[in-house]
Specification:
39% helix; single chain; 161 residues; Rossmann fold; alpha/beta; binds 4'-phosphopantetheine; five-stranded parallel sheet
Length: 161
């Protein structure tokens, strides 16, 4: 493989649960940056399916083919964690126009807090453009089939709950 020199990027999110959409963005990011730190936010919502530790473990199990990634749990401000890791960029996936508003506000806030850390948006593949973790949780809660939304390991973990 050709040597890269694009530094370390964070791929932050809730990942509750890790979907094919997340995997798609992570695979794209891992081809661009030398190292990706998948950064699992510790936010504990009442509707959470998995603990941060369980989410991290599932991401690790779903990504044995990606050699330049690691997974960390973080609490607090994302840019502080980014600086502590020496990250040059934050990767966020964009699915559709409705993502823009929230993503732009977050990117501008993060830029004001840490201008040296660039936010990089990657477009998901078309087939994953409508997947969101909250929709997956909802479908699963009502007994629907989530096979096309999440890797088999995640499906198994959700079914075991
Ligand atoms: O997968 P999500 O839920 O869209 O991820 C959102 C996340 C975790 C990246 C975002 O909420 C976050 O960065 N939280 C940490 C607090 C922070 O630094 N917020 C950014 C300033 S707006």
């Amino acid at each position: 493989m050709q040597e890269q020199n694009n530094g370390l990027a964070l791929y932050p999110g809730s990942f509750d649960p890790f979907t094919y959409g997340h995997l798609d963005i992570l695979e794209r990011a891992s081809r661009i940056f030398d190292t990706i730190v998948v950064t699992v936010a510790k936010n504990s919502s009442k509707t959470a399916a998995f603990t941060p530790e369980q989410r991290s473990e599932l991401i690790i199990q779903c990504t044995p083919h990606l050699k330049n990634i690691r997974v960390e749990i973080f609490d607090g401000l994302l840019v502080d964690f980014a600086k502590s890791q020496g990250a040059v960029a934050l990767v966020r996936g964009l699915r559709q126009v409705s993502d823009f508003d929230y993503e732009f506000r977050m990117a501008f806030a993060n830029r004001r807090l840490a201008p040296e850390v660039e936010t990089v948006f990657l477009m998901t593949s078309e087939e994953h453009a409508l997947i969101s973790a909250s929709i997956v949780r909802e479908i699963h809660r009502h007994g629907g089939d989530i096979t096309s939304f999440v890797p088999p390991i995640v499906k198994k973990a959700l079914n075991a709950k």
